[in-house]
Amino acid sequence: LKMSWLWLYLPFHLLTAACLCHSIKAPTTGSQQSFKSSLFNFYHSLILADGKETTVHLLKDIPKRYYFVLEEGRAPAPFTVTVTPCDVPIEWSILVHKASASFLGKAAQGDYDTQEASKSQKVPSMVPTIFNYKGNSVETYVGMSSHPALYMLEFLSTERDTHITVYLTTDTTSGHLYPELPLDPRIDVIGIGHTTVTLTWKHSPSVLQHRENIQYCLLVNEKHNYKSLCAAETAIRSSGMKLPPTLALSLSPYLLEPQQVMILSNSELSIINKASSGEVRQICMGTKNTYTVPSLSPSTQYYFDVFVVNLLTNASAAYTGTFARTLEEPEPKVMELKDGKVIQVVLDGKKQKFYSLQYQARHKKVQFAFQLCHGQVWVHVTKNGKTVASENILGLRYLSLKGKLLDTYLVQLRSTEESNSSVKVQVSSHFHKPLFPLLPESLKIKSFSKLRTCNSVTIAWLGTQEQSKYCVYKKRIEENQVWMELQSTDRCSGPESRQKSEKVLCKYFYDINLQRAVTTETIKGLDAGTLYLFDVYLIGPSGIPVRYHSKVVKTRKKC
């Protein structure tokens, strides 16, 4: 057989034949009526392109038809039709009309007589449907015919509006649009951890033949398996997430870097290295057929789909998806807090893990003290399993609690940002011997713009009703260092961490009247037009320092 596409003249010929049928005044026979109906259906169908993937949009309960023509040739040849549903299950079928070359020729000339055709039995007859399928899997029909024929494909969606892709080819010798799957297309789970799953699968024959044009891509999500990339793209779009118009989730041939991770979250596409609930991860790893998926959540079920992708045509074939549940996270190690002892905890922001501390009360009243050193920290405190406090720590925070002897307190700490955070923690039953100094109402340092000169700066800060030591330090910085200096400040470090050359002075003061517990200091000997970072340390009776918020001031350039 030889394939020919009659898209310029076939509809006109069929219309001509249909008009001839309608012009017959004599009663029509059953076969003639069937012929007219068939011609009407074909005339209202679209031609299916050969060798190209066609996207078909379906409206609910409205069938859509496409056709192609096979005419008489020297020998029969096969043809294939592949249909990929991109959403809900659909119904599709293939019907065929067989006709002689003379019938098509007379219809083309417009002098075909249907009554004569009925007598000579040259009217094309409809054979039973040669193929029918209902579902949402990718399905391929391979056919062969030795007769001139019109083939019609009919598609129907009964659930909702959707779209599909259809691929027809009559050239089975020049290679495949879709990569080939191995005889066993299953994905094997060979390793499961708390945050990782290791997968392996058999190589596609296409990878062995065309390694430079083929790659494997993995889709990871927490909902269900996808039978095609087309289906995955549709599901993500319907959830309200945005996809780049040229990339979407159908793998771009330009994604050649191995182990690229694209995550859809917060309605935007971003390339990051971790997963969160509800995200879809797409990972392309070249031609490797073993991969360990990292950064998963413990005790969570994930679904894994592997697609082998032709980078030249962007067509893909799906392995049989699998799923696995990560292991439960082991109980965090709990460190015992000792009465009156201060510990400093460094929290890993990337892993977002809890750090747990436990304390058994020796008195009815206990007091926790938290001093934020760096970053942002969230604290959660329970007493005998019941929550008594849950908040972010800002500066120095005291938490006084009342209970019973031998009550068990559990303190859980976690960094609320991706960088590392640190905090000092102390618990004590001796309220009259606080470890941290008494704090003023505010830890801000104020500078006076009107008192600023080319070589001096005047600053002020609040004190307390308790006699305490205050030390002032200065540091010369550049314009581009301001943000980094303020962000990297360790608020728990004391004067011992500073260079001796940065020290300005130390002094004691207090005032019973808090309204008058304010002190000022003029720092001289500075350079004109220069930025300086000023710090004040408050050191109480216990010797533990508290750092005021750093202040950046620039001296006048001209005086």
Describe this structure in words.
The chain has 559 residues and is mainly beta. The chain folds into four domains: 45-99 and 126-174, Sandwich (Jelly Rolls); 176-243 and 278-330, Immunoglobulin-like (Sandwich); 334-428, Jelly Rolls; 445-554, Sandwich (Immunoglobulin-like). Helices cover 12% and strands 41% of the residues. The chain contains seven helices and 38 strands. Strands 1, 2, 4, 6, 7, 8 and 10 form a seven-stranded mixed sheet that branches. Strands 14, 15, 16, 17, 19, 20 and 21 form a seven-stranded antiparallel sheet that branches. Helix 1 packs antiparallel against helix 2 (30-43) and helix 1 (10-23) crosses helix 3 (101-109). The longest helix is centred in the first third of the chain and has 14 residues, at 10-23.
Short structural summary:
The protein has 559 residues and is mainly β.
Instruction: Using the coordinates shown, work out and report the CATH topology of the largest domain.
Output: Immunoglobulin-like
Distance between the termini: 98 Å
Q: Report the helical percentage.
A: 10-25%
Structural class: mainly beta
Number of helices: 7
Quaternary organization: single chain
What's the gyration radius in Å?
39 Å
Query: Which stretches of 5+ consecutive residues score pLDDT under 50?
Result: 1-36, 104-125, 242-277
InterPro entries: FN3_dom, FN3_sf, Ig-like_fold, NDNF, NDNF_C, NDNF_Fn(III)_1, NDNF_N
GO molecular function: heparin binding
Domain Fibronectin type-III: 179-316, 437-545
Organism: Penelope pileata
